[in-house]
Specification:
The chain contains eight helices and eleven strands. The protein has 285 residues and is of the alpha+beta class. The strands form three sheets. A four-stranded antiparallel β-sheet has the order 1-2-3-4, with helices on one face. A four-stranded antiparallel β-sheet has the order 5-6-7-8, with no helix packed on it. A three-stranded antiparallel β-sheet has the order 9-10-11, with no helix packed on it. A hairpin with a 4-residue loop joins strand 6 and strand 7. Helix 3 runs antiparallel to helix 4. The longest helix is centred in the middle third of the chain and has 41 residues. It starts with 7 loop residues before the first helix and ends with a strand.
Length: 285
């Protein structure tokens, strides 16, 4: 609570008034303010607030009246009402570190961590409120890190759910599914051995035919590189087919009974098992 130090001289500018009516309003505003101080000292809190409000009606920029109302409202857990007065103080005295801390605390209680953080960062190291501000900053940074982790977990769960949905609904419609691969965005590619086709299932569960080409016959293994090129092990015709993101298909390699394909992203290599010769073959892409 601000002390009762206001007298008419404090309100007057340079000891004179611009108009008698203006000076009269300020004089009455000061009286209401002092009355509010007295009422608060008598534990007549609501009446005290009303007196401060009357002072503000006459002098909207009455800093001390705004301050005292805000303190009372905060003590009564009336954060939204207090915020109105704290923001007014901020407009009048943006560098008031005590008010900055009060604003930060109210926004923190309301759950607006970014707003609270921005006010706290304005409190410089020489201010008496600096240490307390740092405590709140540490709490906010910790909570924001936790929220970021929670968001990533939810995103991962959503993708996992979409994978499960796609697999559960779409796989039943693919004849003789064999090879499977996933690209960096989470799209799934499935080979149909009997249809000689490759299907793409998006993360939302939509199934489409990847490409139509006579080069695919008896597909088994699948792999996707970092540039979204797809490699298909054609077990029936002893070839590996490469399909570009644009859908262009070509023979990548001739190999006897290719089976499994694995892509090594770190070294940009493709590993293939050649079943007929019992070999593992490496291709640098």
């Amino acid at each position: 609570m601000k002390k009762n130090l206001l007298i008419l001289f404090f309100i007057l500018v340079g000891g004179f008034c611009f108009s008698p009516a203006f000076c009269a309003d300020l004089d009455i505003a000061t009286r209401y303010y002092n009355e509010g101080i007295d009422l608060y000292g008598q534990n007549r809190t609501q009446e005290s607030i009303e007196s401060f409000e009357k002072a503000i009606e006459l002098n909207p920029d009455f800093y001390e009246a705004h301050y005292n109302i805000a303190q009372i409202l905060i003590s009564q857990n009336r954060q939204d009402e207090a915020l109105v007065h704290l923001e007014k103080i901020y407009s009048l005295r943006p560098n008031d570190t005590e008010n900055l801390l009060n604003l930060a605390k109210v926004e923190y209680v309301k759950g607006y961590l970014t707003k609270s953080y921005n006010y706290l960062k304005k409190i410089n190291s020489t201010a008496s409120q600096y240490d307390e501000a740092q405590i709140y900053i540490a709490r906010i940074e910790k909570r924001q890190a936790e929220l970021g982790l929670e968001a990533k977990i939810k995103e991962h769960q959503a993708l996992s759910d979409s994978y499960g949905k796609a697999a559960g609904i779409e796989l039943g419609e693919i004849m003789a599914p064999s090879g499977i691969a996933v690209d960096k965005r989470g799209n799934i590619y499935i080979a149909s051995f009997s249809e000689n086709q490759i299907y793409k299932i998006s993360i939302y569960g939509k199934k489409t035919l990847l490409t139509k080409t006579s080069l695919i016959k008896g597909p088994i293994g699948l792999a996707v590189d970092k540039f979204d090129n797809i490699y298909v092990a054609n077990y029936s015709v002893n070839t590996i087919v490469k399909i570009t993101p644009e859908g262009t298909a070509s023979i990548f390699a001739d190999i006897k009974k290719p089976y499994c394909l694995i892509y090594d992203e770190e070294h940009h290599r493709l590993y293939v098992t050649e079943q007929e010769t019992n070999k593992l073959i490496k291709y640098d892409l």
